[in-house]
Design goal:
The protein is mainly alpha-helical and 539 residues long. The protein is 57% helix and 3% strand. Strands 1-2-3 form a three-stranded antiparallel sheet, covered by helices on one side. Pfam families: ThrE, ThrE_2.
Amino acid sequence: MPEGSKPDQDDDTWGTVTPGLLGHAEPVGTTPSSLEQSPVPAPAQPPAEDWIALGYTPPSGISLTKLGVGGPGGAPWPDRMRALLRTPMYERPAFERSTTPEPAEVGPNVPRVLDLTLRIGELLLASGESAEDVEAAMLGVSHAYGLDRCEPQVTFTLISISYQPSLVEPPVTASRVVRRRGSDCTRLGAVYRLVADITGEQASTEDAYRRLAEIRRNRHPYPGWVLSLATGLLAGSATLLVGGRGDAQAWLVFAAAFVASVIGDRLAWGVARKGLPEFYQFVVAAMPAAGMGVVLTLGDSGLRGSVVITGGLFALLPGRALVAAVADGLTGFYITAAARLLEVLYLVVGIVLGVLLVLYVGVNVSASLHPEQTFATHAFPALQLPAAMALTLFFAVLLQTSRQVLPFVTCFGGIGWAVYGVLTVEGRLSPIIATGLASGTVGLFGQLASRYRYASSLPYVTAALGPLMPGSVIYLGLLAFAKGQPIAGLVSISRAAAIALALAVGVNLGGEVARLFLKVPQGDGPAVVRRAAKRTRGF
């Protein structure tokens, strides 16, 4: 516009601004009506498909599949919670309740819910449950009570949970230390039922606290004298399993293993009452069986003392801790897996030390120990299969398994041993491969039974793996060390470690096959896809 000229009042461009930068583009005057804020029209938004195609999240968000109500007939809570656990927090759907809460309803008591969650996780971890299942249970409890933005974390001795109320509020974190552990599958099953009722909206916070207190107060289903009796019968059944004979001498060996294991169990209980660590309990518990085996071989009596020692090893090997350690490692909980493997190593070293001290004395006094007696020269299914099932039954009793579960576990132990026998005798496969396939079968059946009964798979698989434990190979290595043959001893111990690893990996793989390819016996599967724990590609 030329300098000094007046603008044309009718010019529509006068008083306008660039649209979209400073608001509206209407002329701004000085009248009171012009001072009022004019409504700003909402900018046109492109379709959500265009946002997604460009790699952005649309303003309205992306619709996510909601969790179904976890009542009876729905998918088991471990499946749903594992899927939720492996989903990033910003993608987790909110809990879909069967009834809409009232607007005036008071929100959740965050400290109380977190305390209840930690107490449930402590019981599960102390009972030997895997770290992933403990985290899934903790997430399910907090999720059901309205705490959607929770992150549980489990290590070998410490469990913690953190709740983020919003993006602008500080998180609330609570933790709890697990100092005592025990084998009580009955208590484990009760906690699983409690978590199922909580995720199914069938238990309030107060009800959950009351039931949790009852679970803690309940006594073990079997008294101490029954556990000692089961320990002796387990060792005696192991002598029939590895000896493979049904003659009169076999029953004498059975009785010797029974007496030695009961004495070892009572000695371990006495050491435990004195407050000594578990390592020394295993050292003391392993000595009577080894001493009884050495005594039977003195004077060229011809009794199978090596079988007695092997039977005592079967009653002491920590199969539960080994299975849980490998399961944690395969699911990405490497710190917990390393700690549990170290625990297994210490316990095995305690067993080795107790047996090796006695064997060293026995070799020096010219005890005629024959390791080949612990490997049956021919298959005797009519004796070995019932012995394997009896071993499984008594092992389940030692784990405080519920009486309703004992028949299932006993059958699974017989199935696992039958598969192993067929693969090694008829198929001529390596014992390591046969052990892996047999334990995979046990894991498959155990996972099916747990999904059908909405319970933990630990009571169904741990005892059933008892007949497949590498007791004979460990004894062979220990005897080689006692005779001054370190190379042969290392070979046998390495072979035992390979069998134990195949045992744990096989049972875990069998459970994963059941989760991936088999339908849930009741209800529908999880709405959210279960993702892998890690997505590394070599880096």
